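Weekly modeling sync, notes
Attendees: S.R. (lead), two postdocs, one rotation student

Agenda item 3: backlog of single-chain predictions. S.R. asked that every request posted to the team notebook include the full sequence so nobody has to chase files. The rotation student volunteered to paste the first one in as an example of the format we agreed on. Action items at the bottom.

Example entry:
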Amino acid sequence: KQYVSFEKTRLIVFWSKNPEPLIPFLPQLDDLNIHYLFQFTLNDYESEQLEPKLPALARRIETFKKLSNLIGRERVLWRFDPMILSEKINVHNLLEKIGNVGNCIYPYTSRLTISFLSLYPKVVKNLKRAQFASIDPDESVVKRVAEGLLDLSHRWGIEVVSCAENHDMSRYGIRAGRCIDPQLIIKLFSNDPSLIHFFEQYGKQDLFGLDYNTLGVRLKDSGQRKLCGCMISKDVGRYNTCAHNCIYCYANTSPDRVVIEDIFAAP
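Predicted structure, as returned to the notebook:
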């Protein structure tokens, strides 16, 4: 276990598929003058039962709206992640799933972050155990998905970016994003002098203010994957502790291991 001090904490970025239980505690962060925003993963794999222990999609959509109304649409960033293709989910089905969710929540967010499923060995093992065969997309499939996403983003008026994606989607108009994004953080919390002073130490100034490209490169977190664009931060979390039991999970070794860790972590 590690001690987490809030003494110098200026910002928390939450990653969650179900932040509903956290909402009542957000005023405590407000009282501590700690900023926060959410990377809210909202997928639609209900019919495939790939996320078996999450609340129903309709309830998660309502949570998304509630959170956005509470803290603002620019602080609730939508993720459809991972994008999964299989014999049952073709390009048309995938875009339809994303479109159906987006039609419900686009007024409540400003950005959609996407990436295709990464087939790590434990992911392949868990998918095989669940008798679900995913398909690694070729370039023609990536192009069709990207073009479909751009059509949706233009219709909704929100930005679409990729996350640590092996396929270069910039050629189709989808830039590589930064989930912990210094440019967005400065935009949202420009009234925090200590936060802005931190960024000014790393960024070059031009006629228009900070050069965000230089800032992003200088602040890149070297502890993350090569393609990850996130700025330096401290991860707070633990493997094998999520009880959602998503079949494709990157963090849990297996459902059985999660139960063991749950018991071990119990007070």
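Discussion: group reviewed the output briefly. The chain has nine helices and seven strands.
Action items: rotation student to repeat for the remaining queue; S.R. to check formatting next week.
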